[in-house]
Amino acid sequence: MQYISTRGRVEAKGFIDTVLMGLADDGGLMVPAEIPVVAEATLQKWKTLSYEELFLEIFSLYINDEIPIEELRQLVSRSYSSFRTPEVTPVHQLNDSLYILELFHGPTFAFKDVALQFMGEFYSYISKKQNKIIHILGATSGDTGAAAIQGVRGKEGIKICILHPHQKVSKVQELQMTTVDDENVLNLSVKGNFDDCQRVIKELFADLDFKGKYHLRAINSINFVRILAQTVYYFYAYLQINKGDQLPKINFCVPSGNFGNIFSGYLAKRMGLPVNKLIIATNENNILERFVKTGEYKPGEFKSTHSPSMDIQVASNFERYLYYFLGEDTAKVSAYMQDLQQNGKITVSQEDLAKVQQDFAAYGASNEQCLEVIEEYKKTYDYLLDPHTACGIAACKAQASEGEVTVTFATAHPAKFDEAIRLVGITQQFPPQIEHLFTLPQHQKVVEHDKAEIVRELEAFYKL
Ligand SMILES: *Cc1c(COP(=O)(O)O)cnc(C)c1O
């Protein structure tokens, strides 16, 4: 399997080089040259596999023979040994038509752990095997940073620097990042919002001299390995629910921000997973909802909501979808992306909009709805949703039809977002791992939203 850029100006690469490159050198995103299709008979066989075995099957379709299978097995086993359940992502049934896929059983209690625990092991493996320095640089709205830091803390040959928006992440997210005292970790708390942080990161990665000189590696979901790791639980959830001989279609409803998680679902569908609707759930930062409803992709005004990990206006992975939607035409993708940069928006034709609406449904939950859903589900099912998952449930209610079965993703544990839970008047008991964080000292540096200052901090850190 070869990988190419959505903008068509990068030589085809293998899997390892694709992961190391992160953002494509031409500013695009890396995608597989061809999506492998899984036959129905193979899906039937996969029904009895454990999570880790399923992971190996799916990755084997994508990594050629670049990592010997026994070594890959060890990486996978180490990655998921840090989860609190051997199922990794257990399915919880609420009623006949609604299942919750719990993606928060990893070390930092959010779905990012599923891909980033593996990515940490993967980078460590490459660093040793190829004798490469790995300097991870990333921006976070809270959960990616925490998960990435947990994935590589204390690992030899790797340094990690994470930018987060100053005082715009939840208390628990901040503690998860800043209480880590390993020397290979630097937290920069940037006076700005997430989009500001991400813009600086994108500029630094686009500066190929800087990227090369400092061996920069990405952990954001622009990295294809994250997308691929996330397809595993779409298959796993599906196979857990459909144990019988039939393979009926089901809906997936995914709380979305950067379009990474839901894009993994799109990939799974293209691989042959019987998916009915892919429902994009957002909060009041609803660029994706507006796109699916009107065909106009246009960043709006940034809003702070109860679900801060989805407070995103520019959805990085959107370009991957654009690529497939435009019939894998890299010249067209480049033109659309240039349009976005110059005119601040992309508009697709009515005919194309109909295609988008075949691929996705979308709904943006208001702050009020989010809290109402948390209260309702606590009362009805005695199940406490985190505010991101609550946006997912609101979207599921709006977009799933009678008779359809939907799996809504629980992207975080409610303890991470106690600020919202308290607003509903619910007092929750924190898991001991989170309780413990409040007793630890914090390590972070507050910086202006200024590229030059951030570069100075980075250079000092890399020279250590
Ligand atoms: C990151 C995150 C999201 C958004 O996921 P994307 O892949 O960026 O769309 C949703 N919920 C939670 C809790 C998250 O951490």
UniProtKB/TrEMBL annotation:
Catalysed reaction(s) here are: O-phospho-L-homoserine + H2O = L-threonine + phosphate
Instruction: Name the SUPFAM superfamilies for this protein.
Output: Tryptophan synthase beta subunit-like PLP-dependent enzymes
Task: Tell me a Gene Ontology molecular-function term this record carries.
Answer: threonine synthase activity
Q: Which InterPro entries does the record match to this protein?
A: Ser/Thr_deHydtase_PyrdxlP-BS, Thr_synth_N, Thr_synth_N_sf, Thr_synthase-like, Threonine_Synthase, TrpB-like_PALP, TrpB-like_PALP_sf
EC class (word) = lyase
Domain Tryptophan synthase beta chain-like PALP, chain residue ranges per copy: 91-407
Query: Which key words are in the record?
Result: Amino-acid biosynthesis, Lyase, Pyridoxal phosphate, Threonine biosynthesis
Q: Name one Pfam family in it.
A: Thr_synth_N
The enzyme's E.C. designation: 4.2.3.1
- Which superkingdom, per the lineage? Bacteria
Matching entries from Gene3D superfamilies are given as: 3.40.50.1100, Threonine synthase, N-terminal domain
Q: In which pathway does it act?
A: Amino-acid biosynthesis; L-threonine biosynthesis; L-threonine from L-aspartate: step 5/5
Function according to Swiss-Prot or TrEMBL? Catalyzes the gamma-elimination of phosphate from L-phosphohomoserine and the beta-addition of water to produce L-threonine.
The UniProt entry's sequence similarity note says: Belongs to the threonine synthase family.
Name the chain's protein: Threonine synthase
Q: State the organism named in the record.
A: Paenibacillus zeirhizosphaerae
The top of its lineage is: Bacteria, Bacillati, Bacillota, Bacilli, Bacillales
